[in-house]
Request: fold
Amino acid sequence: MSSIPILHAGIREPFPSVATAQTNGLLAAGGDLSPQRLLDAYRHGIFPWYSRGEPILWWSPDPRTVFATDKIHVSTRMQRWLRHCDWSIRADTDFPAVIRACAQPRPRQPTTWITREMFDAYCALHELGHAHSIEVYEGDRLVGGLYGVAIGRMFFGESMFSAQTNGSKVALIGLCRALREWGFALLDAQVESTHLTTLGASTMPRSAFVAHVAHACEQPFPPGPWDTRWSMLATRDLAR
Reply:
């Protein structure tokens, strides 16, 4: 960690320029997960990601993976499946349940980066109206979802989960549809993966991403819970 800047907890100090990040995107270590620090990080195209036992690590990869909210890919096969699915999609009705589900071990990921400190930090952001969850239900059972942070008209995705096949896909498609209607052009997906690419994700240079974020975060869209703003969707509506 000696080769990257070290931040100090409880001190309001600026992040280093993202242009100084290492080739893997690692920018700085330390600091804290206060709402002020987290919101400042997102406004500058930076996010925390670290494992238990490590200091807080701050990242700004180049290129950045994003979804254009009007270009989410819904395959013909997925459209057919959606037409016959009776799940419902909600927002901000059980944020803690979504983040807990995202933190559960997975077959190729036996440990989680969503530590207790991260859980508490994002629940605090949720209480302030900046962190949001999208929930997918089969009856009363939570079968998929995702959570992230909204500032202005920019949404920063953090994690998603599926307890049943297509659970996270439904959440992502539903979120992109809502964001498009609300005037959010991009959804940040952080790091490229084959799964995200098949859903329509693309990459953009960090400099272009940071410039977009600076503009989008200044666009008026008041913080607050989305449960009253969100029109509960039936999954079949996403096939249109």
